[in-house]
């Protein structure tokens, strides 16, 4: 059967993608950020996942106020990089895994989670920046990717608890798939940041580090944190962290922490990164 062997959490700051695309990764400002992912690149070369379920949020590229699904799964064969206003990123198209994606869709919907099925959509920095951070700049991404978009832009976003339980349902779906696949699940976004208003530029290192601790050791309790706490402590865009709970819900209760990285600042946010393996 297919199995989820590991989970990855990482920020998906758009300026990181720009730094990669413009050859600035070795600059004084950006070098410490990218050095934090050297372990991940080596680890992935050894792990060789067949499929990555990549949990991210769209930034008005595939969806708009005309249509905002709470949870959407990409069931297509290929997803092109989105033009976010300055041209698509110079990265390879994402190759999907329709068989597993459709199986997940059926299983998760029958498990009482309503997913919007998407066959065609452009994927923006929320998905492509994590791929670049983890895989570098290959001619083609070395594994299939199933995009799983979560609405954390338009009120109301799903609760952390709902996201955590979706992760549980995704795991059941993957483990009931007949093909022998090494599957990873990545949760992206965050950490603390706010892009507008009087608190623009907010970064709460104490909250971020506590969130990383609890994501590893107390995910069930963390999943019960209300939305207002994310807003108060992590800023208006800190709600992206609920997507990390989808990843964590798909793993064992007890996990091995292989890598932790935290850096301030990268553009106007804090960068966080975890690699967790099932024992």
Can you walk through the features of this model?
The model has no long low-confidence stretch (mean pLDDT 97). The chain has a single domain (3-269), classed as Protocatechuate 4,5-dioxygenase, Chain B, CATH 3.40.830.10. The strands form 2 sheets. Strands 6-3-7-2-8-1-10-9 form an 8-stranded mixed beta sheet, sandwiched between helices. It has helices at 14-21, 31-35, 38-47, 98-110, 125-135, 160-175, 205-217, 219-222, 227-234, 242-249; strands at 3-10, 51-56, 71-74, 78-79, 94-95, 116-118, 144-150, 182-188, 256-266, 269-277. It is globular, with a radius of gyration of 17 Å. Helices cover 34% and strands 21% of the residues. It has 10 helices and 10 strands. It is an alpha/beta fold and 279 residues long.
Question: Could you outline the blueprint of secondary structure elements for this entry?
Answer:
Elements: E1 3-10, H1 14-21, H2 31-35, H3 38-47, E2 51-56, E3 71-74, E4 78-79, E5 94-95, H4 98-110, E6 116-118, H5 125-135, E7 144-150, H6 160-175, E8 182-188, H7 205-217, H8 219-222, H9 227-234, H10 242-249, E9 256-266, E10 269-277
Parallel strand pairs: 1-8, 2-7, 2-8, 3-6
Antiparallel strand pairs: 1-10, 3-7, 4-5, 9-10
């Amino acid at each position: 059967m297919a199995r989820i062997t590991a989970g990855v959490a990482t920020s998906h700051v758009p300026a990181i993608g720009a730094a990669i695309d413009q050859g600035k990764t070795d600059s004084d400002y950006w070098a410490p950020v990218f050095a934090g992912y050297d372990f991940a690149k080596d680890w992935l070369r050894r792990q060789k996942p067949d499929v990555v379920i990549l949990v991210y949020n769209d930034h008005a590229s595939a969806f708009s106020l005309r249509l905002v699904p709470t949870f959407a799964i990409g069931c297509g064969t290929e997803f092109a990089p989105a033009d976010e206003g300055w041209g698509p990123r110079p990265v390879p198209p994402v190759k999907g895994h329709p068989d597993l994606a459709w199986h997940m869709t059926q299983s998760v919907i029958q498990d009482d989670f309503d997913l919007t099925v998407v066959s065609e959509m452009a994927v923006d920095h929320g998905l492509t920046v994590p791929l670049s951070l983890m895989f570098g700049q290959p001619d083609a991404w070395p594994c299939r990717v199933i995009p799983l978009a979560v609405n954390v832009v338009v009120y109301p976003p799903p609760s952390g608890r709902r996201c955590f339980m979706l992760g549980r349902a995704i795991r059941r779906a993957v483990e009931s798939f007949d093909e022998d696949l090494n599957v990873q699940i990545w949760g992206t976004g965050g950490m603390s940041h706010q892009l507008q208003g009087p608190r623009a530029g907010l970064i709460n290192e104490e909250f971020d580090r506590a969130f990383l601790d609890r994501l590893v050791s107390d995910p069930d309790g963390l999943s019960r944190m209300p939305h207002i706490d994310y807003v108060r402590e992590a800023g208006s865009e800190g709600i992206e962290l609920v997507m990390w709970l989808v990843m964590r819900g798909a793993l064992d209760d007890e996990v091995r922490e292989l890598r932790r990285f935290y850096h301030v600042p990268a553009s106007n946010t804090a960068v966080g990164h975890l690699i967790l393996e099932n024992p």
